Every structure is written in structure tokens, then in C-alpha cells.
Amino acid sequence: MALTDIVKAYDVRGLVDGQLTEEVVRALGAAFADEVATGEPGSGSPIVIGHDMRPSSPALAAAAAEGAQARGADVVLIGLCSTDGTYFASGSLDAPAMMFTASHNPAAYNGIKFSRAGARGVSLDTGLAAIRDGAQRYLDEGLSEVAERGGLTERDVLADYAAHLRGLVDLSGIRPLKVVVDAANGMGGMTVPAVLGDAAGLGALPLEIVPMYFELDGTFPNHEANPLEPANLVDLQAAVVEHGADIGLAFDGDADRCFVIDERGGAVSPSAVAAIVAEREIRRVQAEGERDVVVIHNLITSRVVPEVIADAGATPVRTRVGHSLIKDEMARTGAVFGGEHSAHYYFRDFWGADNGMLAAMHVLATLGQHDEPMSALAARYTPYFASGEINSTVADVPAAYTRIVEAFAGRGDFDELDGLTVTAPDGAWWFSVRPSNTEPLLRLNAEAEQESTMVAIRDEVLGLIRD
């Protein structure tokens, strides 16, 4: 098969058995070992391999280990973990890593997220294309083994991961909070009890956790593990109100993203979460004497995010959308924090990698240090009206772009950092149109100071896209 079908811009994603077979994964594991060049067995860093709770994940992880060992790499299997648990292992051991997960995709899918040592990202431009091409050669010509295979060990990192996060955000002194958590049968069902509870042997926090769907089940019997879809938040929203909880948290399948629900059952914008966390991290490092503080946000976050960053005395850096790209920018700028509207949150103190649990802890800390409810806290960071991301299937993307440019010529400022962003001269509204990397889609995000303006801009641009 052609690996170009499953190797995406930032990871590998495909249908189990039909596309992502053990043979394919063995070749990818071997090619990854070649790319990170861990050296002779027993020397240098091993390759860390973790996996989520999908039924196919353990066998695929084992196949990848076989491929890496065949090329002489030592392998450390860390077993069941969240994606940010793999980043923790990669960072703390200073070792390259592979994580087997398809994140929020349905049960028929699986995938691989790659990291270089220190949890650094791998994209098509920074090694993933070479891994793809090397694996394709092994599939076409056969996998050549080195004289001395690499070794294999197992290691449990959950307790160390939990202790590390507890050391970054102190929740011991906050007011008591009742927290409903929807793990969607994903890895949050393992990490939440360890980090926010006492399952990892850590002291109890002033949190009453009401669990929803904590049983690890990669068939997702209750709902898909994709909190970006409003339908997947309905159960959590109802439970927060039913239990009289202070806040609700929803994690995706591999638990690297976290979504927040207020005490009324309302969804809190990921941009508001990004602004809350950014302000906390800026204040923290300023108190430690840091002066030239940088925070990253991608171009579809709400305008409130760069405003909060600037008001706190830091420098906002606007970037294109993309997981590995954000990680690269975190390293390049030395940013203390990075936020994406997709609910990925990146931390300098977590090797520049994203961590949904850590973002949730910052929100809990902020809520727990004030008497106001989550809805009031969120409202302070949600001054604008947003459309959310709207996807449209488009047969001719360049033609759609041309229609938009012609319609808004003279009405706004144009920016082509990532797709097309048009901003009103007075800043009263903006919209972004970006093509998908993998599908014939255009993604629209619009925001305005007035709801009626946002609706008008949204509908006009959608009409131009779908003409």
C-alpha cells in the first residue's frame, strides 16, 4: 500500500487492518529508529512506546517495538497512557517516542504520534516524510535487520507523571470544588484519578470528582471521544447541572485535550481557557523575575487571547494552525505557554508539549482561588461573538478564494499567514478561511464585537464558499 494515504501532516492515522496493519507499523517503527538514530544497543536514548485503550493499540505498539529493535534500537514500553503521558516520558527520559492513538477518531481508526527526544514534534517537514519513505522501502523491499537487535524493557510512568503535574500547579489550597469529568471511555479514565485523585499515591486534593465513562473502552460505547462536537458534551452538561457541580471537564480519547463546562452547563470557549491559562503563566514567571515573556496563540483563537497577553505585559506571537508547528514555535521563541482554539495547550515547563490535564489544573486553580462561579469567570474572557469552526466541502478551492477576495476587496485587511484572514479596518470583525491538509474542505472561523455582525459576516462568507 502507499503510505502517503495514512501519513498526514503531523501524524499517522488510518483504518485498522485495512490500512494500519502490524506489518505497516513494524516498518514505521524501523524507519523511526533509523530517523532518530539512537545508536548501538545499550548506548544513547531508547525509544519510548506508549498506547491508548483502543483494542488494536497493544498489538500495534508491540509491532512497532519489533521494527525498532530490528534496527538496533532499545525500546521502553510504557503501556497504557495518555498522549501527554508519552510526552512526559519523552521529556523526562530525553528519549524519542511513539504514541499509538487515533485521538478523537472512531474506534475503527488508530494512529501514531511521533516525538523526538525531549518531546519535540515531528511533522512532514521535520522528519515524518523521511520516516514514511523509509517505511515504504521496508514494505517494498523487506525489513533489513542489524546484527544485534535492540533490547526491550517495560516501565510504568503514571505515578511520576502525576507527581510532575502536581508540582507545576498547586491545588492543595483552593476552595473545595465539585468537578464532573467525562473521560469518554478514553485515557482520562486513568489519568484523572492519578492526577486529581489519590490513585497514584498522592495526597487528596479539595476536589470531589464525579466520574463519567471512566471505564477504558476503545469502542466508545457511550459517545465518541471528540469534545469538539457539541453532541458529545450533552451528557456532561446535564450531569454538571444535576450534581450541582462547580465545573465540568471533558477529555478526548487520548486525553491531551480538555474542554470546560460551567456550572450552568454552558460550554466555555477554548480561547477563554487559553486566556485564563496564559494570564496565570505570565504572572507566575513575572513573579520569578522574567521580563521578556512570550505567549503563542494561533490565528483562529479569539482576539481576547492576544489582548489578555498584552495587558499582562507579555508579547503575543501569532502563528499558523498546527500541532508540530506550535511546538517548533514554542522552542524558537522560548514561549512560556501556547494556546490553540482546538483546545491544545502547550507549556514550556512541559517540554513545550501540549497537556490537557495541565490546562484543566490551571482552570481549577483559578476557579478555586475566587468565589465567583465558572460562568462569571468565563464571561470575563469571552467579550466577543464567535462562529466556531464551520467546515464546507468545496470542489474548487481557488475559485472560492477568488470569490471571497473580490467580495471583501476594500472592506478589510488581508493576511495570508495561514489560508486567508480578513480583518475589518476598525477591528470590529474578522474571519479566517483555511483549506484542510487532507480533505477538499474549507474551514471558516468568524468573530465580531456584535453578534449580529458576526452572523452577517459568517453567512456572507459561507455563501461565497458554497456558491
Automatic annotation (TrEMBL):
Cofactor(s) this protein requires: Mg(2+)
UniProt record, GO biological process: carbohydrate metabolic process
PANTHER family (UniProt xref): PHOSPHOMANNOMUTASE (PTHR43771:SF1)
Pfam families, per database record: PGM_PMM_I, PGM_PMM_II, PGM_PMM_III, PGM_PMM_IV
Keywords, comma-separated and alphabetical: Isomerase, Magnesium, Metal-binding, Phosphoprotein
Domain named Alpha-D-phosphohexomutase C-terminal: residues: 389-462
Listed name of the protein: Phosphomannomutase/phosphoglucomutase
Record-level Gene Ontology MF annotations: intramolecular phosphotransferase activity; metal ion binding
Lineage, broadest ranks: Bacteria, Bacillati, Actinomycetota, Actinomycetes, Micrococcales
Family: Belongs to the phosphohexose mutase family.
Residues of the Alpha-D-phosphohexomutase alpha/beta/alpha domain: 6-120, 160-265, 272-384
